[in-house]
Amino acid sequence: MASTSDIRNGLCIRYNHDIYKIVEFLHVKPGKGPAFVRTKLKSVTNGKVIDNTFSAGHKLDDVRVETHKFQFLYNDGDFYHFMNTEDYSQIQLVEAALDNPGLMKEGQVVTVIINSEDNAPLSVEMPASVILEVTATEPGVKGNTATNATKPATVETGATVNVPLFINEGDRIKVETDKGTYKERVKEQ
């Protein structure tokens, strides 16, 4: 059993007859009244995100998990297929178990969280950022670096990311995977 003081991003808990992963949390200590923890919970079975508030000291039923490195192989429309990098076993996950599947490239190594009790995969954690090539966007104009204006760009995985006006097709950009936002342009090496 865990308590609200053990809450952290990525912690998996049993709540309302389902397993949830804590996506966001905030400890609140108001001037008047008891402390509490505001959380955003994501169901690992259907991907639904709910907001919940736990009072300070509330006991949580945590789920024992293991993490393993898996390589993303392909998406067949219904399932995303992964291969364990240690024993080469393969698993398939539904899109709801993935946080931002549109930013995943084939061959990318991710961390899969697995329930220790029944060896069922719960969720996939991607690296903090990924480098992707822009495949389609309006042409950039020289000198468009002073404003914060953005335009949509399609990256090699098919996802759409808002980028600054100076980004062109063929540029490589770093994208934050948790929010799916542009971070910076990557120079060619």
Automatic annotation (TrEMBL):
GO terms for biological process: peptide biosynthetic process. Pfam families: EFP, EFP_N, Elong-fact-P_C. This is Elongation factor P. InterPro entries: Elong-fact-P_C, NA-bd_OB-fold, Rib_uL2_dom2, Transl_elong_fac_P/YeiP, Transl_elong_KOW-like, Transl_elong_P/YeiP_cen, Transl_elong_P/YeiP_CS, Transl_elongation_fac_P. CDD domains: S1_EF-P_repeat_1, S1_EF-P_repeat_2. PANTHER family: ELONGATION FACTOR P, ELONGATION FACTOR P (EF-P) FAMILY PROTEIN. It is found in: Cytoplasm. One of its GO terms (molecular function) is translation elongation factor activity. Pathway: Protein biosynthesis; polypeptide chain elongation. Belongs to the elongation factor P family. Residues 67-122 form the Translation elongation factor P/YeiP central domain. Residues 130-185 form the Elongation factor P C-terminal domain. Keywords: Cytoplasm, Elongation factor, Protein biosynthesis. Transmembrane segments: none annotated. The keyword Cytoplasm applies. It comes from Algibacter mikhailovii. The gene is efp. It comes from the Bacteria. Involved in peptide bond synthesis. Stimulates efficient translation and peptide-bond synthesis on native or reconstituted 70S ribosomes in vitro. Probably functions indirectly by altering the affinity of the ribosome for aminoacyl-tRNA, thus increasing their reactivity as acceptors for peptidyl transferase. GO terms for cellular component: cytosol.
